[in-house]
């Protein structure tokens, strides 16, 4: 049974037992500054049973922890309610206004949803539907390769079936989920380094991109550096070169 409001809980994942980087520490400080009165829950190997789902078990065995968190964030929101944030998400304004929603998320750009900041009441059917989808999925394909389909692609397709227009605009679906433009939760273009921060921005996803191959991360880094130095014209040239 779904509750009608989002509790003051912040969920985040840290699997692999590695040391937390400086970016996470910076982001955590912003949570502590702006999210007074929220309970913080870390999901890791001690608080979640890795063996409980085949997809998670295979992703963990492959040391692809970002894909483990794709499932665990949904598990946390469905069973506890609250707001999930990636560990590379910086909070710049209090999130209290979103607690009145049944569930919420936002766009990553003009066509796809983001999942770095998302919230839901306990037992919300939208989260339940996304969670159930993992029961029929495997991370390890029959040919031995990994299914690295991003959760943003899966969530976007699922929401489109419920009437979401993938146009980057504010929308409320019949299932009670509210979606915001990218300026609210994902105002940073990690591909080209552009900023869309406005007075409507509440979180900034810095996109550590730990799930991507090293050469792809390097390509994004080069684009960001070029954008800061000389702007979008060189970006276009680099895109052709890369």
Mind explaining what this structure looks like?
The protein is of the alpha/beta class and 242 residues long. It is built from 8 helices and 9 strands. Strands 2-1-3-6-5-8-7 form a 7-stranded mixed sheet. The protein has a two-stranded antiparallel sheet with strand order 4-9. β5 (103-107) and β6 (113-120) form a beta hairpin. α2 (54-61) runs antiparallel to α3, α3 (65-80) runs antiparallel to α4 and α7 (214-230) packs antiparallel against α8. This is Glycosyl transferase. GO terms for molecular function: transferase activity. Keywords: Transferase.
How would you sum up this structure in a few lines?
This protein is an alpha/beta fold and 242 residues long. It has helices at residues 22-34, 54-61, 65-80, 125-133, 151-161, 182-185, 214-230, 232-241, and strands spanning 9-13, 39-43, 82-85, 89-91, 103-107, 113-120, 171-172, 177-180, 203-205. The strands form two sheets. A seven-stranded mixed β-sheet has the order 2-1-3-6-5-8-7. A two-stranded antiparallel sheet has the order 4-9.
